[in-house]
Amino acid sequence: LDTEGNVMSAGSGKSGELGRPEGIGYQQVCTNIKQISAGFGVSFMIDNEGKLYSCGKKELSGHKDQTNEVKPIKFFKNMTVTHISCGLNYILAATSQGLFAWGDNRF
After folding, report:
1. Among 70, 83, 89, which residue's Cα sits nearest to residue 29?
2. How far apart are CA 10 and CA 83, in angstroms?
3. Which candidate, 63, 18, 62, 25, places its Cα nearest to that of 41?
4. Among 20, 31, 84, 106, fewest CB within 10 Å belongs to which?
């Protein structure tokens, strides 16, 4: 995340967590972002308007399918997301309507 809100990614990205097709080098994946957080195989971004986006594993990303595209999470479309934090297999999102948590629920 640079000072202008651009997110760049590099690496393997086998789960789609880099927001771009696997095998492409260092690349810009989104703009107007104020916060990012990454977990195991998943990445999240909050834009300057408080909308939440993600890419990666379907189990954690909030999407029906695994995706290597940065997409908005429909569940949060009518909320302002103020903070996102990822752990190995869980995500916490602070919003205008409270705190939300999800993950693999193994522990």
Report:
1. 70
2. 23
3. 18
4. 106
Query: How many Cβ atoms are within 10 Å of 19's Cβ, its own excluded?
Result: 24
Residue found under tokens 């999407």: 63
- With the CA atoms of 34, 60, 18 and 29 taken in that order, what torsion angle do they form, in degrees rounded to the nearest 10? -40
Tokens found for residue 9? 């990614």
Give me the chain's average pLDDT, please.
Answer: 82
Average pLDDT over residues 25-32: 71
The one-character DSSP state at 75 is G
* Torsion-angle region of 74 (φ positive above 0: left; ψ -120 to 50: alpha; else: beta): alpha
The rounded radius of gyration (Å) of the Cα atoms in the chain is: 13
